[in-house]
Design brief:
356 residues, alpha+beta, conserved putative lor/sdh protein from methanococcus maripaludis s2 fold, Elongation Factor Tu (Ef-tu), domain 3, Helix Hairpins, 6-stranded antiparallel β-sheet, 6-stranded antiparallel barrel, 4 helices, 24% helix
């Protein structure tokens, strides 16, 4: 009897176990096959379309404000400085006497040239009389004539040098620097004063640019100028000069921007940051700045949405320049492409995305 009860107990336990297994199997069979991809592996993203625009890439450079009539004044001949009549910062008028040399040596040279000319003229007069009496040859007459002419030219040179043993202002302006003091010896051509014109229409900014930027600019192109002295003002100007050769020291091409009448007080040496706008335009692809990943100089990457709107690919691009919140690309992407702008930090090329 006990054996019969034990047998029935085992049958009941087996039936219960089988029902539980079927229920678990049925539950598993109801799970969709694609649910193995969990929601945690799908990255939500936002997109932006690539647009094409026509822009002129600006040229940014820095330089100093100066006068277009800036001059480095010097003596034509060397000597001892006798008198300096103006100091730094003083305003002067065109033609005003600024400095003189000690004339002792220079006057002696003029006197010497005068005496040499007088002697040459006397010699010429004697030879002419002798030639008339056939006591002198034609060659002697020609030599005496040449000697007289040479003496006259030497006197002209001495008198000319004496006239430039003084310095006069070349323009109406301001003495920005005095380079020497009274009693010093200066060589011919050595700087004594730096003079800047002070007319409102003569202020310029000189900057150096690379050969690549130089090739895109031309006379008359517009410029925006920001001065540290006036941080809240934007001045305007145009390119008035383009150097035709690079500076041998820094290999840059100097350009001159003439400032328009901006109604502000200017002085030589003010630091200026210049943004030049070339007239020549080109086509760029415009994308939001947040779409760029792994940027390095002029190169970078973006994530482009594939046609199935679930997958992405990593696309290399060439960066032109940044304009505000946008980046202008010179290549690597087609107009109308959909770029990931939000969520790109969490993406890899194997990621699945969900467009918000």
């Amino acid at each position: 009897m006990k054996r019969i009860y034990s047998f029935y107990s085992l049958l009941l336990i087996g039936a219960l176990w089988g029902c539980a297994s079927k229920q678990e199997s049925g539950t598993a069979s109801n799970v969709p096959a694609d649910s193995t991809q969990t929601d945690a592996s799908v990255v939500p993203v936002r997109l932006a379309s690539v647009q094409q625009v026509m822009r002129a890439e600006p040229v940014v450079a820095s330089g100093l404000v100066s006068s277009s009539e800036e001059a480095r004044l010097s003596f034509k001949v060397g000597g001892i400085i006798n008198k300096l009549y103006v100091e730094e910062g003083q305003s002067v008028r065109k033609g005003q006497l600024l400095a003189t040399l000690n004339l002792t040596e220079i006057d002696a040279q003029v006197t010497q040239a005068q005496l040499a000319q007088e002697k040459a003229e006397r010699d010429l007069g004697r030879v002419e009389k002798l030639y008339a009496d056939t006591a002198a040859t034609l060659e002697q007459l020609q030599n005496a004539t040449t000697g007289s002419n040479v003496a006259k030219q030497n006197l002209t040179i001495a008198q000319f040098n004496r006239g430039y043993a003084q310095i006069r202002a070349s323009v109406d302006g301001t003495v920005t620097r005095k380079l020497v003091n009274e009693g010093e010896f200066v060589a011919a051509g050595a700087g004594v004063y730096l003079l800047s014109g002070n007319r409102r229409s003569d202020w310029v900014v000189r900057v150096g640019i690379s050969d690549k930027d130089w090739a895109r600019l031309k006379l008359g192109d517009r410029a925006s100028i920001h001065l540290d002295a006036y941080p809240d003002r934007t001045l305007t100007g145009t390119i008035s000069e383009l150097a035709q050769a690079a500076d041998p020291m820094n290999k840059l091409y100097e350009i001159e921007i003439r400032l328009a009448g901006n109604g502000v007080k200017l002085a030589p040496g003010l630091f200026a940051k210049v943004t030049l706008t070339p007239a020549l335009q080109r086509t760029y692809s415009l994308v939001p700045i947040e779409a760029i990943v792994e940027g390095n100089g002029k190169e970078g990457f973006v994530y482009v949405l594939e046609s199935d709107r679930r997958h992405i690919r990593k696309q290399p691009i060439q960066i032109g320049y940044i304009s505000g919140e946008s980046v202008l690309l010179t290549g690597g992407i087609d107009a109308g492409s959909q770029l990931v702008t939000s969520g790109s930090a969490y993406l890899t090329e194997s990621s699945l995305v969900a467009v918000k």
